[in-house]
Amino acid sequence: MKNTVFIWDLDGTLLDSYEAILAGIEETFAQFAIPYDKLAIRSFILQHSVQDLLEQVAEERDLDAVVLNRVRGQSLAEKNAQVVLMPDAREVLAWAAEQGIQQFVYTHKGDNAFTILRDLGLAEYFTEILTGQSGFARKPSPEAGLYLLDKYQLDPRQTYYIGDRTLDVEFAQNSGIQSINLLESPLECNQKIGALMDILSLSLDEK
Q1: I want to staple 88 with a disulfide (CB 3.0 to 4.6 A). Which of 39, 62, 137, 197 is the partner?
Q2: Residue 93 · residue 122 · CB < 8 Å
Q3: pLDDT given for residue 75 in this prediction
Q4: C-alpha distances in angstroms, 92 versus 145, 163, 166, 199?
């Protein structure tokens, strides 16, 4: 599998961080007297993104989305200890490294991602980590994917974006690469998994 490449999403894929994310949103909303409905917000951010949520709320309440996101980021950074690994994440990363699979991260998470990955002892697995502060257009824009393909001369037929949302599959398709996702998708580039350990049994050399 020496030509196989994994590009990982973080939240909901490698990191079980949604409770910390929701707690950060709750604290942010409280500061601005915004009603908080945990179930509705969780459903929204899984379907869209936290950024989309903040922009929508800011428009509805005549607030500054940039300020909301800054306050949320500060709150979330204080909750790093609440972020844990998804089941078998460390084992799958180690397996991929043993197989000679080159690994990257592309996440909408801010540069706090570097701290979390370092604290969890995962940073060493990745050739490069791209975050929401790396300057690329947000998913499903292929900008970050095309950057990695070009910089590292990756084979798009053997490059997989691994995520947990429809947005991640769309990013893979737009980038011209393959997708491994925890959700079902009608897009041909995608292979669905029920858990990260399922990656070990996928036919990665037949694309």
Answers
A1: 197
A2: yes
A3: 84
A4: 22, 14, 22, 8
Residue 1 neighbours by CB under 8 Å, 6+ apart: 99, 100, 101, 204, 205
Beta-sheet pairing, 102-106 with 5-8: parallel
Taking each continuous run of H as one helix and of E as one strand, the counts in the chain are 8, 8
Cα dihedral across residues 49, 105, 19, 47: positive or negative: positive
206 has a pLDDT exceeding 60: no
Q: Which residues contact 142 (CB under 8 A, 6 or more apart)?
A: 171, 174, 175, 176
One-letter amino acid for residue 119 of the chain: D
Q: d(Cα 55, Cα 37) in Å, to the nearest integer?
A: 17
Task: Answer positive or negative: Cα dihedral of 105, 136, 159, 50.
Answer: positive
CB 14 within 8 A of CB 197: no
Structure tokens at 59: 């428009």
Give the burial class of 129: count Cβ atoms within 10 A of its Cβ; 0-12 exposed, 13-18 middle, 19 or more buried.
buried
Q: Which of 100, 98, 126 is nearest to 113 (CA)?
A: 126
Question: Is the pLDDT at 83 greater than 90, yes or no?
Answer: no
- Contact status, residue 113 vs residue 143, Cβ threshold 8 Å: no
